[in-house]
Amino acid sequence: MNYVVIGTLAIFFIASVFYQIKSLQKWMKVFNPFNLLPNYSFFAPKPYVNDYRLAYKIVSDETSEWVEIPIYKKFKLIRVIWNPFKYYNKGMIDTTNFLLKEFHSLENKNFIKISVNYLSILMVISAYLKQEGLSEKTIQFAILSSEGGETVKVKNVVFASSHQTLNI
Amino acid sequence: MDINLAYKISITILLFSTILSSLELIRTPKLFLHFLYPTTSKKNKHEWWLLIQSLKVVLVILTVISFYKLPAPFFYVTFITLTLLEFYSQRLRKIGKDGSDQLRLLSLLGVSFCFILDAHLSKLVPLIFIGMQVLLGYTTSGLVKVFSTHWRKGDVLSGILSTNGYGFPRFATMLKKSPTLEKSLTYSAMAIMLSVPICFLLPYPEPILISLFLVFSFHFGTAILMGLNDFLFTFPVAFPGIIVLHSIIFNY
Question: Is the Cβ pair B164, A81 closer than 8 Å?
Fold first, then answer.
C-alpha cells in the first residue's frame, strides 16, 4: 500500500511539473477532470493592470444615464486577516473573461443571453436594483475596463448587452 | 526538524487557512456574489452555499479538537470529511478561485490520502508532497516572471497596485513617482521567489530558513498591498515540509 500511495503522489507531482508549461496545459486537460493540477504562474507573464467595472442603464426611462454598480471597497488594513472581497473581485474577473470568450466564439451572438456568465451578471444587477428599491426594469448593461484607482480612467467597453427586461 | 512537530504545525496552519476561507466565503454573498454558484439549480442556492461553508467551519473546529485531544481515528474521520466538503465546495464554485484555494485543496487531499500509510510515513509523506508542490510553485512563479517582458521592465507593480481590485492606489501613485523604488521592489519580488528553490539546493539550513522568512514577508506584503491574505495563511502550510525535506536530503 505504501508504494501505491507514494507512487501516486510522485506521478501527480511529475504531472504538476509538466502542467506548468503552458503549451502542455491544453493537452493535459484530458487528465485533469477535477482541476487538481495546479497552475503556479500567479500574475505572470502579463499581470492584471485593469479593473472591470459593471454599469447599467434603464432603457425604459429616457432620462436615465449609465450607473456604475459599486463593486470596489476602499483600502483597509484589516484585509491582512479578513478580505472576503478578494473572492468577489476574482469572480468578476473570471466571469467577464469567460463571458468574452463565449461571446467571441459564438456565431449567433444572441445566444450569449443563455450563458451562465451573462445570467450571473444580470443577477448581480437585479440584486443591486432590488436593494435600491427599483422594480421591474428594462435595462442594458456594459462591462468597462478601467485604469487607475485614485483617478479612474475608462479604457474601453469590453462588453455591451442588448436590452434586457428584469423581473425584480 | 522533528517530523511530529512539523506535521503539527502544517496541520494547524492548514486548518486555520480552511476556517478563514470558509468564514470569508460565508460573507461573500452579501457582496452580491451570486456568481460564486453560477447555476440556477436548487441545490446551488444561497442557503445551500451557507450551509456548506458553515459545515466546514464546524468540521474544522471538530478536527482541531480531535487532532489535539482525541485518538487518531477521530482525527482521520473529521479530517477526511472536511477534505470531501472542501472538494465539493470548490467543485460548486466554478469561478473566483485562486492559487491558495488550489494549494489548500491539494494539501487536504494529500494529508487524507496518506492516512492509509504506516504511522511514520503518514506524517512524512504529506509533508514532503506539500513541500515539493510549493517549491515547484515558487520556482514556476519566479521563472515565469523573469522570462516575462512585462515584469523585466520593472514597472508592473504600479500597474497592479493602481487597480481597485488587487491594489492600493495611493501606494501605486507613490511608486510611479519613484521608478527606482518600483524597479527594486519588482526585482526583489522575483528574487525572493527564486531564492527558495536556489537556497533549497544549498547544503546548509540557514539559507533556506532565511529564504522562507523572506517569502513569508513577501506574502505579508501582498496581503497588505494586494489583499491576498489567503496566500499568507496557506503557503506556510508547506514550510515545515520544505525544512524536513531539506534536512533529509542534506542529512543534518
Answer: no
